Amino acid sequence: MNAPRLACLLLAAALWAAPAWAGAQREEALAANVASAMSRSIADVNAPRLVFDNPHEGAAWLAEMSRRLQKRIPDQWLRERLLTAVQYEATRAGLDPQLVLGLIQVESGFKKYAISPVGARGLMQVMPFWVRSIGASGHNLFDLTLNLRYGCTILRHYLDIERGNLFRALGRYNGSLGRAEYPNLVVGAWRSHWQWTPPAGLQQTAGH
C-alpha cells in the first residue's frame, strides 16, 4: 500500500473514532429579518418524517444509513429515530442529509449529550447563545430533534452568508473560519462514510 493511501486510511480511522470536535460558533449580531426567519424555523413543531418523493427510495436510504450507523448506535429504534430526524431537518433547511451526518460524526461522534470545553452541546454541538438569539428559554439543546433543528438552521444561515461556499460556512459553524482543517474533516467524513446514490431502479425521473 502506498504512503498517501495509507495516510488517508489512518485519517479516516482516526476521524471515525475521534471524540467531539467541540464546535464553537461565534456570537454575532443578527439582522432583525434574519433573526425572525431563523426563529420561525426553530419554532417548527412538525414531527420528523422521511421526506422523499418516492417512499421506496426513503426506505432504501434509511436501511443503508442504519447499516452504516449500527456500530455507533446499536439500538435500531434509536438509530432510525435519529436518521429520520436528520433527514427531515436537513431537507427542510435545504441541506444534504449526508453532509449533516458527516458534520455530526466530526462534531460529536453521534453522542447526544456531548459537551465541548467551550460549552457547545449535543449532536451538532450548538452553542447556548443561539437559544437567546433565536430560540425560547425552555429549549433543551440535548433534545435530539431540537438540537438538529438548531444545527441545520445555523448551517443554512452560514451558507446564506457565504453565498453557498460550503468550506467557509463550515468554518463559521466551527468557529474556525479561514482554516481548512475542520471543513476538510467534515467533507471527508461526508464523502468517506455517508455519500449515497439511490439504487438505479429507485432514482427519480428527470426534474425531481
Automatic annotation (TrEMBL):
Originating species: Vogesella alkaliphila
Keywords of this protein's UniProt record, alphabetized?
A: Signal
What is the protein name for this chain?
Answer: Transglycosylase
Ranges for domain Transglycosylase SLT come to 86-179
Task: Give the signal peptide, or none.
Answer: 1-22
SUPFAM superfamilies noted in UniProt? Lysozyme-like (SSF53955)
**Listed CDD domains:** LT-like
Say which family it is in: Belongs to the transglycosylase Slt family.
